[in-house]
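Hey, I was hoping to borrow your eyes for a little while. I've been staring at a protein lately and its backbone has me curious. You're getting the sequence in one-letter code plus the fold written as tokens. Would you mind checking whether the tokens look sensible for this chain? Here's the protein in full, and shout if anything looks odd to you:
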Amino acid sequence: METVEERIARLERENAELKAENERLRRRVKELMRALEEAQRAGKRQAAPFSRRAPKAHPAKPGRKAGAKYGRRCRRPIPAIIDQTVEAELPACCPHCGGQLVETGIENQYQTEIPKPCVERIRFHLHVGQCRRCGQRVQGRHPHQTSDAVGSASSQLGARAVALATELNKGLGLSYGKTVAVLENAFGLRVSRGGLAQAFERMAKKAEPTYEKLVEQIRGSPSVTPDETGWKVGGQLWWMWAFSSAAVTVYSIQPGRGFEQAAAVLGAEYDGFLVRDGWIVYRGFSQAIHQTCVAHLLRRCREMMAVARPGAAQFPATVKGILQAALRLRDRRDQGEIRPQGLAVACGQLEARMDRLLQRHYCTPANQRLANHLIRERDAMFTFLYCPGLEATNYRAEQAIRPMVVTRKVWGGNRTPRGAHTQSVLVSILHTCRQQLRPAISVVARLLRSPKPEVLDLTAPDGFP
């Protein structure tokens, strides 16, 4: 039987423990409130020039470091071809004292300059004839023409002008108004925003076969990384899909975010490696070999650890440790520091550790949600360890999506589905040209000058067919 003194002592201990727990929870609430306020301010803050935190009290000295810490030394190379030589004569007298000067030598300085921009206005004399057999009208065509139109539509933009505008608007994300301003201020070329939209539409029609070729190549790629982000078409929510491989990238703006839209580009029967995030739609590609993005899982673990109680943070911390160990094991394999037998043993140990974690039940809802997600992704978690060269993250698609996110912030999206398709076609060609280190403006100009839509293989190593 508990005595009065023992009961009082027990209650005092429990009271002290509750006070300590209460104080710990108060401190934790304050920390979370500060983090929430900072996150809310960051969401409303513009991208620039605001900083995330207060400036450092003692920041590092700007500029290059002295001695061995200077960094990589480089300078602009001397031009291999000199187009013009200009003489800089000595002044008549010394600018300091007015004395007479005696020439003692000549030094060279090099300057790489942009020539004075100008607009080239070309008139084509189109020789028109008639067939004596069928009576059809025939007119000549010069290789530099972009259209056969005459009459009220006889004044056209040249191929290089449209190609530059395409790069500015679709490739670099400038709005139609800013693209018009660049063309007028830099080159004196006056064009309306509506004229640019029509030129882009004609460009997309010429590039449609090449776009279809890119779709065919992405379906035949051994490894594809997909991703998607929101896009507006006529003020309605659509989705910008990106499918990227090592060679090509295909964009497609579609009204949905489901398997039907993904399969419209990649093909429902795709059987290569699919490196993707945890979006459930991608699991519908049943014939593909899946690799879930490890970076997404690590980010989720870090976010959970930042807000979880010490006991609850142990599970995401353990998952994070296993995933980081898998990445280190991949690096050792790629550097030849581990033999195949040792690699197989290490992979088995990592998978066994993960399986033991996922067999438990977790009381914290956040931990149980993470465990359920990992169970669904279990078969796609360590594929990169067994397939050398396979990416462990979907960074390739993230890099492809990023320019589209910037464009979306600048001018929102497209007004019509036809404009959305034009956007998809042109951006796919521009981004693939960057991947292949090809001059995108030259490719676009060639497509424009072609009398009929031409199929260009942007991955051909020795030029186009």
The mean pLDDT is 91. The beta strands are 128-130, 137-139, 223-233, 236-244, 249-254, 273-276, 289-292, 413-414. The radius of gyration is 32 Å. The domain at 207-290+395-438 is CATH 3.30.420 (Nucleotidyltransferase; domain 5).
